[in-house]
C-alpha cells in the first residue's frame, strides 16, 4: 500500500512528459493520480447520487452526503476503496427495494425512517469510512496505511452486514429474538436477530471483503482481508444489535399496543418512552457499530501482523 508514493510518481511523470499516453487517455486503473481519482469520484458519485435521488432511494441531503463520501473515498482512498463503497451502496439499495411491498408495513410501523436514506443515515454508515480514507490519503508510513485500510474495511463491512441483516432479516419466516434476553419480538424490532438476518449479515461482510481483495489484484499478499471483513463486520453488526436492544430509544404506542422507534406512531398517536436513551436513535447506533467494526478490524490486523512477525523471527532464528 503505497498509494501516495505511487501518486506523486505519477504526477511527476505526467509533468515531465506532458504528452504521455496516460495524460491523453486517463485510464482510471493506470493513472493512479489522486487528482483524476477525485474528479472521477465526484462525477461518479454525483451520477449515482442523482439517480438514487430520482429513484427515491436517497433524500436531497442523503444525495449530498453520498457525493462527499464517494469523492473522499475514491480520491483519498483509491480505486479499491471506491469500488467497495459502490458495492455497499448498490447492494444495500437493491436489497431495500427487494420485496419492498412486504417490508413496507413493518418499516412504516417500526422504523423511524422510510427506505429513502437521509444525510444522517449516510453519515452514520459512511462517515467513519470516509475519515479513514481521508487520513490514508495523507499518511505514507506503510503500517499506518494498512491500519487505516483495516479500519476502513471494518467500518464498511459493518455497514454492509448491518444493512443486509435489516433488509433481509425483516423477511424471516422465524420470529426474531432479542439479542440480550432471547425473548421473541416483533419483526423489525431493533436488537432482534433471526438466522436469516445473521446469515445475510455474514454474507454481506464476506462479499465486501472479497470485492475489496479482488479489486487489488491477486499479486499482493492480502488473503486475510476477506476474513478480516467477515469477522469485523459480524462483530460490528452484533454490537449494533446489542445497542439496539439496550441503549437505543424505543417508544410504545398505547393505541396499537406495540413498540416503535417513532415518536409519533403511524396511527397518529404520540408514543411513550419505553427504554433507552432519548438521543440514541438508529443513526447513532449505526455510527457506534461502524466504530466497533473498525476497532475489531484494526485489532485483528495488528494481531495477524505480530503473529507473522513472530513466525518470521522463529524461521530466521532456526537457521
Ligand atoms: Zn399506533
Topology summary:
Blueprint: H1 3-16, H2 21-24, H3 34-54, H4 60-77, H5 79-97, H6 100-110, H7 119-136, H8 142-169, E1 177-178, E2 192-193, H9 195-215, H10 225-246, E3 250-253, E4 258-260, E5 272-275, H11 282-318
Antiparallel strand pairs: 1-2, 3-4, 3-5
Helix pairs in contact: 3-4, 4-5, 4-7, 5-8, 5-9, 7-8, 7-11, 8-9, 8-10, 8-11, 9-10, 10-11
The protein binds zinc ion.
Can you characterise this structure?
- It is a single chain.
- A hairpin with a 4-residue loop joins strand 3 (250-253) and strand 4.
- The protein is mainly alpha-helical and 319 residues long.
- The chain has helices spanning 3-16, 21-24, 34-54, 60-77, 79-97, 100-110, 119-136, 142-169, 195-215, 225-246, 282-318; strands spanning 177-178, 192-193, 250-253, 258-260, 272-275.
- The radius of gyration is 21 Å and the shape is globular.
- The longest helix has 37 residues, at 282-318.
- The strands form two sheets. A three-stranded antiparallel beta sheet has the order 4-3-5, with no helix packed on it.
- 67% of the residues lie in helices and 5% in strands.
- The two termini are 30 Å apart.
- The chain contains eleven helices and five strands, in the order ααααααααββααβββα.
- The protein has one domain (3-100, 113-318).
- The structure holds zinc ion.
- Residues 253, 255-256, 265, 267, 269 line the site of zinc ion (ZN).
Amino acid at each position: 500500500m503505497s498509494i501516495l508514493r505511487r501518486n506523486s510518481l505519477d504526477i511527476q511523470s505526467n509533468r515531465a512528459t506532458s504528452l504521455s499516453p496516460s495524460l491523453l487517455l486517463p485510464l482510471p486503473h493506470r493513472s493512479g493520480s489522486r487528482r483524476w481519482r477525485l474528479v472521477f469520484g465526484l462525477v461518479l458519485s454525483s451520477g449515482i447520487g442523482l439517480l438514487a435521488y430520482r429513484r427515491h432511494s436517497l433524500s436531497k441531503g442523503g444525495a449530498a452526503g453520498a457525493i462527499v463520501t464517494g469523492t473522499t473515498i475514491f480520491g483519498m482512498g483509491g480505486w479499491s476503496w471506491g469500488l467497495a463503497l459502490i458495492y455497499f451502496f448498490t447492494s444495500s439499495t437493491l436489497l431495500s427495494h427487494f420485496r419492498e411491498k412486504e417490508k413496507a408495513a413493518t418499516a412504516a410501523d417500526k422504523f423511524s425512517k422510510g427506505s429513502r436514506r437521509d444525510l444522517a443515515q449516510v453519515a452514520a454508515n459512511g462517515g467513519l469510512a470516509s475519515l479513514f480514507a481521508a487520513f490514508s490519503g495523507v499518511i505514507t508510513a506503510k503500517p499506518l496505511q494498512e491500519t487505516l485500510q483495516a479500519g476502513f474495511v471494518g467500518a464498511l463491512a459493518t455497514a454492509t452486514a448491518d444493512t443486509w441483516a435489516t433488509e433481509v432479516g425483516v423477511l424471516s419466516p422465524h420470529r426474531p429474538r432479542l439479542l440480550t434476553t432471547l425473548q421473541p419480538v416483533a419483526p423489525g424490532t431493533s436488537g432482534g436477530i433471526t438466522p436469516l438476518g445473521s446469515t445475510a449479515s455474514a454474507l454481506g461482510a464476506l462479499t465486501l471483503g472479497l470485492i475489496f481483495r479482488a479489486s487489488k489484484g491477486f499479486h499482493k499478499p492480502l488473503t486475510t482481508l476477506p476474513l478480516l471483513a467477515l469477522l469485523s463486520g459480524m462483530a460490528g453488526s452484533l454490537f449494533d444489535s446489542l445497542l439496539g436492544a439496550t441503549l437505543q430509544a424505543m417508544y410504545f404506542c398505547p393505541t396499537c399496543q406495540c413498540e416503535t422507534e417513532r415518536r409519533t406512531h403511524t396511527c397518529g398517536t404520540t408514543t411513550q418512552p419505553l427504554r433507552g436513551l432519548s438521543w440514541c436513535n438508529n443513526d447513532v447506533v449505526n455510527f457506534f457499530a461502524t466504530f466497533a467494526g473498525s476497532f475489531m478490524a484494526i485489532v485483528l490486523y495488528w494481531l495477524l501482523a505480530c503473529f507473522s512477525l513472530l513466525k518470521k523471527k522463529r524461521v530466521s532464528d532456526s537457521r
